[in-house]
Amino acid sequence: MTGPDVPHAPVVSLRDVEKSFGPLKVLDGVSFAVERGQVLALIGRSGSGKSTALRCIDRFEKVDRGEILVCGRRVDDPNVDLRALRQDVGIVFQSYNLFPHLTVEQNIMLGPRAVKGASRSEARALAADVLAQVGLSDKAQAYPEQLSGGQQQRGAIARSLAMKPKVMLFDEVTSALDPELTGEVLKVIEGLAAGGMTMVTVTHEMAFARGVADRIVFMHRGKVHETGSAAILASPQTAELAQFVGTGL
Amino acid sequence: MGGALNANHLLFLAHGATWTIGLSLIALIGGGLVGFLVALARISPSRAVRLASGLYVQLVQGTPLLVILFLGYFGLAAIGLGLSPLAAAGASLTIYVAAYLGEIWRGSIESVPKPQWEAAEGQGLTRAQRMVKVILPQAVRIATPPTVGFAVSIIKSTSLASVVGFVELTRSGQIINNSLFEPFLVYAIIAAIYFALCYPLSRFSQGLERRMARGRAQLAGA
Question: What is the pLDDT along chain B (222 residues), one digit of tens a residue?
Fold first, then answer.
């Protein structure tokens, strides 16, 4: 039940989104949009609301006010078809969360088999495809505990890709990794970007944001404080972004 | 009977021991089935179901098993619902075990890290699929040692069913002692039989815990 595929309609758009946790307003009128094939990087200090904004897109948080559209579907609608939404949207989190009781291949096959009704052989072929895409073909039969953090994150990315999402969300997927492992995961994400995947990434990796993102959204205290191409990182217009870029956080 | 301990006494005790095992199985299977439903009800999205199941657990955990047995046998009989000792003991133990296993299993399910739920949700799995394919297989590992430990204590608790006239191991020992007047000998034999029933399970539980501790160590070292 996707909406009409209007050319140039954003894949994801937020308009005046507000969200509070108790008395704390974490999103205070947030608006941004991602076009098909674009990579959007959400940056900002911890607590600026960027992760919450991302989680609202996949309905892991409900918004209090405002409108969120994903592939033509109103996510802020209380009756949104969550199963359909989650087939359109892939999400990878900061914590490694491959299912520990399943091999990497079984992790990947689960969604296509359970949700899309794929046969065992179809799912296995799909797993082989996505594992090749993230450079993990030799680890298909390994259990998550036998993998490094970077390999686990690549496995989690492969698991999401197997659902053939129209947009991928990355929530600080490299924050728990050392620089070397961060590099191997970012390379996979860069590869996806080059392949035309639409993505929203919450990231602390400024080099990645500069190099890969088509659009930067700098959030500060629950608001979109500054937005533009990667050039805004080189010449910030606001003191807050200047300070944020300057500290290298 | 009467006189010295003989083979007939031992046969009688063996018969009692089989009923101890039988009652334990009834309690653990019945209590396990109901307890699984209790565990699911305790984490239900419906507040009413959560409250009702929570109340059940609190009530049972706040009541001595002996009193539940009295209620099930003498209490129900007094209001015209007479049950046989086996039915009364089986039902009482089922109610009792369900509350405890329900709580052990609820805790095990809830101790599966939240990101596992979210990852399964992000893949588009239904709540039932998330539970069956992702959460329960992990919860079973967590739940096994405390479940086996509780099973051991239930085998011993079935001795309480002797008070409603159910002839299990303890009650058969009492009957024999009434004719032999050798309480030390008779109860020592009974203690040895309980030990023989429980010890293998305890060892099994310890083995499981060691295996899991090793698993975690591997995880930490990875």
Answer: 457 888 999 999 999 999 999 999 999 999 999 999 999 999 999 999 999 999 999 999 999 999 999 999 999 999 998 899 999 999 999 999 999 999 999 999 999 999 999 999 999 999 999 999 999 999 998 898 899 999 999 999 999 999 998 999 999 999 999 999 999 999 999 999 999 999 999 898 888 878 776 655 554 443
Radius of gyration of chain A (CA): 18
DSSP A229: S
Instruction: Name the residue range of residue B51's domain.
Output: 16-169
Answer yes or no: is B190 within a domain: no
In a domain, B76, yes or no: yes
Q: What is the spatial distance between Cα A70 and Cα A198, in angstroms, rounded to a whole number?
A: 12
Is there a contact between B133 and A110 if contact means CB atoms under 8 Å apart? yes
End-to-end CA distance of chain B: 65
Structural domain contains residue B102: yes
Contact (CB<8Å) B123/A97? no
Pairing status of strand A89-92 against strand A12-21: unpaired
Q: How far apart are CA A11 and CA A8, in angstroms?
A: 8
B206 interface with A at CB cutoff 8 Å: no
Query: Any CB–CB contact under 8 A between B222 and chain A?
Result: yes
CB B27 within 8 A of CB B184: no
| Inside any domain, residue B161 | yes
Q: How many domains does chain B have?
A: 1
* Direct distance between the N- and C-terminal alpha carbons of chain A, in angstroms, rounded to an integer: 40
Q: Which of A86, A95, A160 sits opposite B121 (nearest CB)?
A: A86
Q: For residue A179, give the 3-state DSSP assignment.
A: helix
Check CB contact under 8 Å for B120 and A99.
Answer: yes
Count Cβ–Cβ pairs < 8 Å, chain A vs chain B: 63
Q: Which two tokens stand for residue B202?
A: 């305890």
- Taking only residues 138 to 167 of chain A, the set having a beta carbon closer than 8 angstroms to any beta carbon of chain B reads 145-148, 156, 159-160, 163
CA neighbor of B90 nearest in space, from B175, B13, B147, B20: B20
CATH number at residue B61: 1.10.3720.10
DSSP alpha helix (H) spans, chain B: 7-42, 47-61, 65-70, 76-78, 85-110, 114-122, 127-129, 136-157, 169-180, 183-221
Query: What span, in angstroms and rounded, lies between the C-alpha atoms of B17 and B172?
Result: 9
Q: ipTM of the assembly?
A: 0.88
Sign of CA pseudo-dihedral B5, B8, B13, B14: positive
